[in-house]
Amino acid sequence: MLTGKQKRFLRAEAHHLKPIFQVGKTGVNENMIEQINEALEKRELIKVSVLQNCMEDKDTVASEIAEGTGAEVAQIIGNNIVLYKESRENKKIQLP
């Protein structure tokens, strides 16, 4: 689990990021979880955008992705979800 201080740090780091995944009408599926997992391994911190035509609410989407990938939800702001997962090979982010 992330501490409040770590979440604040990650939110600041994610501020300038653009969402690299979009969750639409079909919701979260296995293929998406796999791709998000690969992106997290490369980048550690990503944003996922929940489109307005998505049938599930953003909290459900966030928890499904977090569960599927083993990532932490650093923030849900507007329709964007900020996810963090420590990389095994490409460690870039040093948490406080």
Automatic annotation (TrEMBL):
Extent of the signal sequence: none
Key words of the record: RNA-binding
Entry-linked SMART domains: CRS1_YhbY
Presence of keyword RNA-binding: yes
Sample GO molecular function, one term: RNA binding
Record domain CRM: where: 1-96
Residues that span the membrane, as ranges: none
Domain of life: Bacteria
One Pfam family this sequence matches: CRS1_YhbY
PROSITE patterns linked to this entry: CRM
Name of the featured protein: RNA-binding protein
Organism: Virgibacillus indicus
